[in-house]
Design a protein that fits this description.
Elements: H1 11-25, E1 35-39, H2 53-65, E2 66-68, E3 76-79, H3 80-89, E4 91-93, H4 98-123, H5 134-155, H6 183-189, E5 190-191, E6 195-196, H7 229-241, E7 247-250, E8 275-279, E9 293-295, E10 301-313, E11 330-332, E12 348-364, H8 367-378, E13 386-390, E14 393-398, E15 404-408, E16 415-420, E17 427-435
Antiparallel strand pairs: 1-17, 2-3, 4-11, 5-6, 7-10, 8-9, 8-13, 10-12, 12-16, 12-17, 13-14, 15-16
Length: about 450
């Protein structure tokens, strides 16, 4: 059984060690000033190996399009394609006459009102609904007309030119020699209504945002991959077939390595969390009752074993142009959202995903805590919703929203083993994101 005097600080210390491993062994180049990492919590799977291309497409798009909050935990702050489209709606040429800026600002407000109405109507649809109601069709037509009006206003500014390329681009893109578009061209490539428009070039996650395309023809790339993943995954599967776990990472209570900068999101001192066994409601949310069991930080160990672990680049399609973030030919309209603040919708742009394969998480306890935890979990009905809170990881052990398996090892080891429900597909452990505010040159006008 673990020596209580040597138990580690918290599960989040394990995240420290995983990132340090990737920096040392997987060539993860990490600059804490430019990037941040959001951890997913050891239970998210992403089916990147399915034979159905549509499933792979959706899985990869959902990862790349989901913008994390400015946090160590992987919680969504919005989606990239909609946030980017709204950002473009708030840009105008710096030399646009004042009266046109006023008109353009009113048009932006009109579009925002229509967008909110559209989202409200779509949220009331039953799951799987594909037909458009007359009200939805009307709003889409009004939005399309507003978008065309915006382009007409921009075309009237005769001095408008393509923006200057950023020589030291900080965000990877799938473009090679393609010229940076003008604002009119950029607006024609992305839409709040349909996502990326009429793009046939193969790229990483160029997919529509929703299921309501306009009447005009749209085409999308047939298949996407996360760069460099396929060949590596083949090796991981071979290792797993042999029952091997070549990567073992244990949390320690040593001082956190600030070189990769989790502290840029949250001070490490606040991450020394207890391990909690909690009651959940049917939706998987924590109830207001006191924890069934509380094991203080520093009184359990956390060790992860992997058949495969790595970080892989992910990039937007050609519809996304990061050069709009850093140049002087355009400005943001007054009243525009603060897209690039810590809580802004474009604060973090995903650039890499941390993927694992065939892994288990072993939690070492004192004998007394092991016995107590085992009794409280095994004595409950399998339908009773119980959760295990481990730092930034919220694991659901039982109930309708169950997302992990739990195995109580032998009494001598006094350890429990946590594993994903499906260990045959990759797990998304975290997302590395570009901190946009470090490359922004805009001021509100």
């Amino acid at each position: 059984m673990p020596d209580a005097s040597k138990l580690s600080v918290s599960i989040d210390r394990l995240n420290d060690q995983i990132v340090n491993y990737l920096i040392d062994h997987d060539n993860l180049e990490f600059d804490a000033i430019k990037f941040g990492i959001s951890f997913s919590g050891f239970y998210l799977t992403t089916d990147l190996t399915n034979s159905n291309e549509a499933i792979i497409n959706e899985a990869i798009f959902n990862i790349g399009n989901n913008l994390p909050r400015w946090s160590s935990s992987y919680a969504p702050a919005g989606d990239l394609i909609n946030s980017y489209a709204i950002f473009l709606d708030n840009l105008v040429p710096t030399d646009m006459p004042s009266f046109q800026k006023a008109t353009y600002r009113e048009l932006r407000d009109t579009k925002l009102e229509l967008q909110n109405k559209l989202m409200d109507l779509l949220s009331k649809n039953k799951p799987g609904t594909r037909s458009l109601s007359p009200a939805v069709s009307k709003l889409i037509a009004q939005l399309e007309q507003a978008e065309e009006t915006a382009k007409t206003i921009l075309r009237s500014v005769t001095s408008i030119k393509p923006i200057v390329d950023v020589l030291n681009s900080l965000l990877p893109t799938s473009k090679s020699t393609q010229a940076t578009p003008s604002l009119i061209e950029a607006l024609g490539m992305v839409s709040f209504i349909t996502g990326a428009r009429v793009l046939t070039e193969k790229n990483i996650y160029n997919m529509p945002v929703n299921t309501y395309p306009p009447s005009s023809s749209n085409s999308y790339s047939p298949k996407y991959v996360i760069e460099g993943f396929d060949a590596v995954f083949t090796k991981w599967k071979d290792i797993a077939t042999k029952g091997l776990f070549p990567i073992t990472i244990q949390a320690t209570d040593a001082t956190a390595d600030e070189s990769w900068g989790l502290g840029a999101f949250t001070p490490m001192a606040t991450l020394q969390d207890a391990l909690l066994l909690v009651n959940l409601d049917d939706t998987g949310s924590r109830s207001l009752s006191e924890p069934e069991e509380e094991i203080p930080a520093g009184h359990y160990t956390a060790t992860a074993k992997f058949s495969g672990l790595g970080a892989f680049p992910i990039k937007p399609g050609i519809w996304f142009e990061e050069a709009f973030f850093e140049q002087t030919q355009y400005e943001l309209l007054s009243g525009a959202p603060n897209f690039f603040a810590d809580d802004g919708s474009l604060a973090l742009i995903p650039t890499k995903v941390i993927l694992a394969y065939n892994f288990t998480l072993e939690i070492g306890l004192t004998k007394a805590k092991y016995d107590s935890l085992k009794n409280k979990v095994t004595s409950r009905s399998p339908d009773a919703a119980l959760g295990l809170v481990l730092g930034s990881a919220n694991l659901i052990l039982s109930g309708p929203q169950k997302n992990v398996n739990i195995n109580f090892l032998n009494e001598t080891s006094a350890a429990i083993e946590i594993s994903p429900l499906n260990n045959n597909v990759p797990n998304l452990l975290g997302v590395v994101s570009q901190k946009s505010k470090n490359i922004i040159s805009f001021t509100l006008r």
